[in-house]
Write a structure and sequence with these properties.
By secondary structure, the protein is mainly α. Helix content is 82%, strand content 0%.
């Protein structure tokens, strides 16, 4: 008997390894194979996690439109599932893309929103990821200055989950009321 879910998760992890080695075409092929299996199985949480990683890869490659599409699809699934950890992870992923695009205030708002979700729902980042996130935000804060950084962070922190999701999915030029 074949463990289809195990095969899909293995393909996801192999895709992650290929991605870390900058073998993006191989990573995409592995991710796609894993995603097809997860769709057949109807494993929406695993699909959302995989879509997030696919979006992260596209963002790393500079294809922000593809990253956005994949992240939107993932956010819809995480939201429907009520998966707070997945939503927070995705807010942080979108934050990294905002940094890459030079949208520093947006990045800090997203990070603030993710931090609030993590605290409210006791869903902390693993220590190594928390250190990496903190280090990436040091540069952002330095570039923006203390006052602008604090204001952007507080704006993000003040957002509740639904508002943070709406802000993350809004086009950079859209206003979220």
């Amino acid at each position: 008997m074949q463990d289809s879910r195990g095969v899909a998760l293995s393909l996801h992890h192999l895709g992650d390894i290929a991605r870390r080695q900058n073998e993006h075409e191989q990573a995409r092929a592995l991710y796609d194979r894993g995603l097809r299996i997860l769709i057949e199985l109807g494993d929406r949480r695993a699909m959302a996690n995989l879509l997030t990683d696919m979006g992260n890869m596209e963002g790393e490659r500079g294809d922000f439109a593809a990253a956005r599409r994949l992240h939107e699809e993932s956010m819809v699934i995480f939201s429907e599932l009520g998966d707070v950890r997945g939503i927070a992870n995705l807010l942080e992923a979108i934050m990294r893309i905002a940094v890459a695009r030079g949208q520093l205030e947006r990045a800090l708002r997203l990070a603030g929103g993710a931090s609030r979700l993590r605290e409210d729902f006791q869903a902390p980042l693993p220590p190594d990821e928390a250190i990496e996130l903190k280090q990436s935000l040091v540069s952002v804060r330095r570039q923006l200055g203390a006052a602008s950084s604090d204001l952007a962070w507080q704006d993000g922190w003040a957002m509740r989950a639904e508002k943070a999701i709406q802000f993350a999915l809004a086009a950079e030029t859209d206003r979220v009321a």
